Amino acid sequence: MKILKKMQWKAVFLVGAVLIVHMLLIFYYGNLKAAFHEDEYFTYYTSAAYEAINPWGDILETTGLQLQSHFYVTQEHRFAFRDIIDIHANDVHPPLYYLTLNCFMSLFPYSFYKWFGILLNSAYSLVSCLGLMFFVYKLDKSEHCGKLALTIGLLYAIHPATISNIMFTRMYAMSVMWTVLYMDVFVLLVQNYRGRWQKFGWITASGAAVCYFAFLTHYFCLYVPFFLTLGFCIYVTVRKLFFKETGFLRMFIYGLALLLGIGLAILSFPAALSHIFGGYQGDWAFQTLLDEDPWSLLKMFLPVLNRCFFAGALYPALVIFALFGMAGLGLLVWRKKRNLPKVSVDLVTLGIGVTAGIIIVWLTAETSQFLDDPAICGCEGRQGRPCGFARRGDWLD
């Protein structure tokens, strides 16, 4: 018992160390941040309960004091949830991230800090880091699962893309959190969908809740849950038809619960339907997916993927992935011939689902072009202070 407690405290200490390293990097690079992307200005502006602005329009001709007043929450706009929802109903994004940012900013009325967005994203990223470690720990059945989980958590914590995502005051850090949490729910589902009804009920409710909040954060958040769930439903159906295994009814119930969660999200924010089927981003996504030549899309995105995600090593990585895939297929055949126990489908299902979801996002998300967009590197004179804070009555020069 003492040994077990000692191991638990050691695990808590190591997980805490990973999170501390993550926060230290966030504070270091957050302190260096000295400018905002134009979309970040949009985030702060609408989170302060003002209508959307065009940073390249008449707003540049206004005084610094007038512009400043649009980037902090006034007493009138503190916790102005209804106003923010109405503003985003006329936009193309769901409002959940902006509501949480408004909550944070409302605690410090008449103030504007770059740390509002950074700290909010940090909270979401800490949950994502913990979620990834939990995911790997539950997925891996070997004696090294703890070490592997800590390694993955550390890689996430120090990865430049992670830090960059936190510095960018948009809904993407929150979107990552919901995606990771759904993967956690899903691995529990795969391992327990034939278990006790009570545990299955909690897993189902958790999946529906994650889909509800993910939908209200960013519509693309549902791609990964959709492909994961669809792939596993097909797997369970095949096992039911050919091997008479149980679990089909539960997966049907689980799928209905997810649809119910999404339906409740639509009822909470009815403008979502017009965003998806009538907004310019929805139209662009459907047009790209249905009308464009897949090969031309690959030619457009592969160089970006190669440069930004693989540091120029995409094609060697693809060769390695292919070799591992063939080795895995050979291992399955070898184990089947010798009547050895079947390999768990957890990793295969998750890998296919996540990969399919990410590919569809790349092919349909107009925001993918942000990989090449330059950030606004400064605002001079009285156009606005790019970082730090401003208080009512100060000139921003």
List keywords for this structure.
mainly alpha, disordered C terminus
Summed up, what is this model?
The protein is an all-alpha fold and 397 residues long. The chain contains 17 helices and no strands. It has a domain of 152 residues.
Structural overview:
This protein has 17 helices and no strands. It has 397 residues and is an all-alpha fold. It has a domain at 171-283 and 328-366. Helix 1 (2-32) packs parallel to helix 7 and helix 6 (115-139) packs antiparallel against helix 8 (160-167). The longest helix has 31 residues, at 2-32. The protein is globular, with a radius of gyration of 23 Å. Mean pLDDT is 75; it is low at 359-397.
| Cα Rg | 23 Å
| Uncertain stretches | 359-397
Label the overall shape. Answer: globular
Described by strand count, sense and barrel closure, the largest sheet is: none
Mean pLDDT: 75
- Strand proportion, as a percent range, falls in under 5%
Give the helix level as a range of percent: 55-70%
SS content category:
mainly alpha
Tally of contiguous helical segments: 17
Rounded to the nearest angstrom, the distance between the terminal CA atoms is: 63 Å
Task: Give the quaternary arrangement of the chains.
Answer: single chain
Furnish the topology, listing elements before pairings.
Blueprint: H1 2-32, H2 38-47, H3 64-68, H4 81-89, H5 96-106, H6 115-139, H7 145-158, H8 160-167, H9 172-192, H10 197-215, H11 223-243, H12 248-268, H13 271-278, H14 280-291, H15 294-308, H16 314-337, H17 346-364
